[in-house]
Amino acid sequence: MRVTVAGVEFRSPVIAASGTFGYGVEFEEIISLDKIGGFVTKGLSREPMAGNPAPRIIETAAGMMNAIGLQNMGVKAFIAEKLPKLKQISDTVVIANVFGFTIEDCLEVIQALNDAPGIAMYELNASCPNTSHGGMVFGTDPPQLWELVARCKGASKRPLMVKLSPNVTNIGLMAQVAADGGADAVSLVNTFVSLAIDVETRRPRIANITGGLSGPAIKPIAMRMVHEVSKAVKIPVVGMGGVVRAEDAVEFMMAGATAVQVGTASYADPRAVENIANGLKRWCAAHEVAEVRALTGAALL
Ligand SMILES: Cc1cc2nc3c(=O)[nH]c(=O)nc-3n(C[C@H](O)[C@H](O)[C@H](O)COP(=O)(O)O)c2cc1C
C-alpha cells in the first residue's frame, strides 16, 4: 500500500485533508492514525485567526459549503502545543498546511516550521476561497502563483506541495506554473466558490455570503481537473474532492493521482479516512493489484 510523494513515504495513499482533521491529535481516540497514510493540518498562519462569523457551515444536496475563514491557533501555538503530543501518539506522516495574506507571511510560517521536528512536508494553500485577500488571489493569477511558490520553495527545508485552486479556467496551466516555480508536488482540488440563499429570510445561508463547496457533488469536476493536471506536469499529483468510498480513491488514482485526500467524508463519519484506507487495501486484494501505486494513471483514457 506504500506510495511515495516528493520523496516522502506514506504507508497508504489515503490522507486526511486540511481543515477537516483538526491538528490530528483530536482524532487520536477515533481512528487509528497508524492505519492511514497521514494527515494535513488545518491551515497555519503567522498569527492566530478567529475566522469568519457564523453560520459558516451548511449541508448541501451532495456535500457541504463552508466559510470557516481559516480559523487556526497560529503556527507558534501549533508547534508548542500540538506537535509534541502528535509525536507521542503516532508516527503517521504529518503535512503542515501553510497560508498567508502576503508572501512574507507564508515565508514566516515556513521558517517557523523548518525548525520544528516531526513534519514531513508542507502543503502551501494557494487557493482558499473564503478570505477577502491573499489565498485565492495567488492561486488564480499565474505570475503571482509563480512568485509565491518560488519564494516559499527557496525558504523551505522540506518538500513543498502546492494546493491549487479549482476556481480557474485552466488548471493544467496553474499546475505548470507551480511546477516551474519549484513545487515538489501539487494537490487539488480546494473548494469551489458557491452560494446558498434561505428563501424565507432572503439572506445568504452562510454569513460570509459565499462559501466553498466540497463533498461528492464536486467529485466529477475534481476528477477532470486531476486528469488534466497529471497530463500537464511531471511532479506527483495528490487528488481530492468528494472521496467517500475506497472506489473513489481508486478512481482518482486511475486519473493520475499518486495519493488522495479525504475531507468532507470525515464530517459524515469521523472514521471515514481509516475506513477508506482499509477499503482500498481490500479493493486491491480483490482485484489482484499487488502494488497500489500501479493504479496511478491506469485508466484507459
Ligand atoms: C470545513 C472545511 C475546512 C477546510 N479548511 C481548509 C484549510 O484550512 N486549508 C486548505 O487548504 N483546505 C481546507 N479545506 C479544503 C479541503 O482540504 C479539501 O480541499 C476540500 O474540502 C475538497 O475535498 P473533500 O470534497 O473531500 O472535502 C477545508 C474544507 C472544509 C470542508
Quick recap:
The chain contains nine helices and 16 strands.
Q: What layout of secondary structure does this protein have?
A:
Elements: E1 3-5, E2 8-10, E3 14-16, E4 38-40, E5 57-60, E6 63-66, H1 75-89, E7 93-98, H2 103-114, E8 121-125, H3 136-140, H4 142-155, E9 160-163, H5 171-180, E10 185-188, E11 192-195, E12 197-198, E13 203-204, E14 210-214, H6 219-232, E15 237-240, H7 246-254, E16 259-262, H8 265-268, H9 272-286
Parallel strand pairs: 3-4, 3-16, 4-7, 7-8, 8-9, 9-10, 10-15, 15-16
Antiparallel strand pairs: 1-2, 5-6, 6-14, 11-14, 12-13
Helix pairs in contact: 2-4, 4-5, 5-6, 7-9
Flavin mononucleotide is lined by residues 17-20, 42-43, 64, 66, 68, 70, 97, 125, 163, 190-191, 214-215, 218, 240-243, 262-265.
What does this molecule look like?
- The chain has 301 residues and is an alpha/beta fold.
- It has one domain (3-50, 70-192, 213-295): TIM Barrel.
- The protein is 33% helix and 20% strand.
- It is built from nine helices and 16 strands.
- The strands form four sheets. Strands 3-4-7-8-9-10-15-16 form an eight-stranded parallel barrel, surrounded by six helices. The protein has a four-stranded antiparallel sheet with strand order 5-6-14-11, with no helix packed on it. A two-stranded antiparallel ribbon has the order 1-2.
- The longest helix is centred in the first third of the chain and has 15 residues, at 75-89.
- The structure holds flavin mononucleotide.
- The site of flavin mononucleotide has 26 residues, from strand 6.
- Flavin mononucleotide (FMN) binds next to strand 6.
